[in-house]
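quick one, 294 residues, struct below
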Amino acid sequence: MNHQKKTTNQIRPSWLKKRIPSESEFKNISLMLNKNKIHTVCQEAKCPNIWECYSRKTATFLILGPYCTRNCRFCAVEHLPVSSPDVDEPARIAEAVQNMRLNYVVITSVTRDDLVDGGAYFFLKTVEKIRKRNPNILIELLIPDVKGNKEAIRTIVDAQPNVLNHNIETVQRLYASVRPGAAYRRSLDLLRQVKEYDPLIHTKSGLMLGLGESFKEITNTLEDLLHTGCSLLTLGQYLQPTQKHLPVKRFIHPEEFMRWRETAIQMGFAQVASGPFVRSSYQAEKLYQPEVHL
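---
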């Protein structure tokens, strides 16, 4: 887990510099998570918001271990041999959620193509354990594509999350280079199936910008997402986590992100978070509006 990663030395524009909050709360959350052997996508994916989120006593919990069976060229999560899922992990996460006094929690996972159900059962058990301790908590699940397994998707929907998030990540043309092992249409079909199984679940997706996509390609992708019934959207800047990952083709100015938010709202999305530091689970509780008509 503590493998050294050579970071990129790309020169970033001024708007991509963040002030680091106080270390005290960050250290407290880090120590608690490490002590309980809990992984977060904040740490494993080298998220630029980790200091802010930990300091606000929040985190996106990563289940099914810290190692992924795929090797996407944008993602810093390690691609190494995986082990069997830890059956005690759902209970430990539920305890951490309670200790952190969270009212809204995001659960995600690495991609586990080695598992028949892609890890769907562990999403279900994690939700059950959390709700046993706090029946009123709001839960967002950020899931992999589970290879399009319909039974696995049904299992996750049966967990009754308030929000089910699956990131499209990029435009269709770039899938082969950005997301080898994934499929653009498969991800759209997953989001569509969720709404077919339970129309009341809010579905959410997100894109990274700055990988070489065109204006038209972004617009087409947003249209495709809307056609699945997706109502929540995140747009953020791709940042190269290490030198072995894809380089940034373009840094998008904050004003352009604001224009994309306006465009997406006009197209029909209910809620949109758009900005250089926006990530799929960043301040997710602010994006979820249960009273919005689906």
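The domain at 22-287 is CATH 3.20.20.70 (TIM Barrel).
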